[in-house]
Fold this protein.
Amino acid sequence: MREIPEASAMIDFVLALLLWLAVFVPSSVIASISARKSPKRAGFMMQLTMLLLSLTAMKLLGGFERFGFVWSDAYIGQAFVLGFAISLVLNLFAPSETTPGFLPEGARKFFLLLLLAPLSEEALNRGLLEGYLLNHGHFWGAITFSATLFALPHLMAFDGPGERAIVLSGAFVLGLLAGYIFALGGIAPAFVLHSSANLAGLAVLKFRESRGYK
């Protein structure tokens, strides 16, 4: 692997951050506007905007294949098992209060958490952000940076330092795993890992509800 000058590497990461912000900020603004009318719809609007902007940016910057946004069966099974198992452990040890109150109900919650959110968040954090850095010769830096920016927004959904610490650390770990498997197999296994992790969270939530926890 060629050695990248420090100044050039710093520029790469600054540009990657600006690219991430160019998608995340307008998505957050649209979510905030939507929340005034319907809080339950805010998450859907943010994820949809994030997905559309990420896909547009990838298309303009060289195409989906350049950013690993192509379907591949590689590592699908491993991604599902790994995401579900790690998330199951993290959610079982998390306090029951770490369930966001803004999630929609019924089938819309499953659509958001198992399909739209994993697809949009992986498109931004792995496809656009990590893909950009991988294209510029960064491997572990790309994985760590994308995991960090993936984890930080999760703080907005929770109150209290204890809950935030648990959510931040859990999201960072899952971000590292998704980032590594994306670097190996592209967007498909990263999406599966993310979706299976959310599935484990829903399973723990359902279990707690059945036992009378709130």
Summary: The CA atoms of residues 26 and 49 lie 8 Å apart.
